Amino acid sequence: MTPREGSIWPDVVALIGEELAAQMSAAMGGTRLYVPKFAGPNHPLTHVVGDKAAALIVAAMAGEYLLPPIALGRDARIVQLREGGETIDAIASKVGCSRRTVFSVLEMERKINPPQLDLFG
After folding, report:
1. H/E element holding 60?
2. For residue 27, which of 42, 44, 13 has the smallest C-alpha distance?
3. What is the pLDDT of residue 89?
4. Which residue from 30, 33, 62, 37 is spatially nearest to 45, judged by alpha carbons?
5. What 8-state DSSP symbol labels residue 24?
6. Is the CB of residue 74 less than 8 Å from the CB of residue 108?
7. Least CB-packed of 24, 72, 92, 118 within 10 Å?
8. At residue 1, does pLDDT exceed 60?
9. Residue 64: exposed, middle, or buried by beta-carbon count in 10 A (0-12, 13-18, 19+)?
């Protein structure tokens, strides 16, 4: 079988949700992942996304190869580090990207999820 390219990733996100998909991307991004017909408790997929999500992926995609994207996990990590108070330089160093990439990801996040305005402030 050949790996399913990019267009399959939205199916994975729909199956397991954005949070688990980002977790999978962070742990397995850039690799080729074979989806077995059964993912037991010691399978890497089960370790990363848990029993229920692994079972959903296996039921829908057994026998296929997935190519989790690198950027999804990287972008989520950048946002997480910034929310934790890290500086732009520290984030770039920890994630292994440029300052420009960090600014770009944070700007995209602001457009997608604008900050809430204080109604009573």
Report:
1. helix 51-61
2. 44
3. 96
4. 33
5. H
6. no
7. 118
8. no
9. middle
- Average pLDDT for the chain: 86
Q: Whole-angstrom Cα distance, residue 20 to residue 119?
A: 32
Torsion of CA 31, 38, 46, 72, to 10 degrees: 40
Q: Angle between the 70-83 and 99-112 helix axes, to the nearest 10 degrees? A: 80
Total residues found in the chain within this entry: 121
- First-to-last alpha carbon distance for the chain, in angstroms, is 58
CA atoms within 13 A of residue 59's CA, in its CB half-sphere: 8
46 versus 77: the higher-pLDDT residue is: 46
Q: Can you give the pLDDT at residue 6?
A: 47
Extract the tokens encoding 42. Answer: 């010691």
Sorted by sequence, the CB contacts under 8 Å of residue 99 that are 6+ apart come out as 88, 89, 92
Cα(92)–Cα(100) distance, integer angstroms: 9
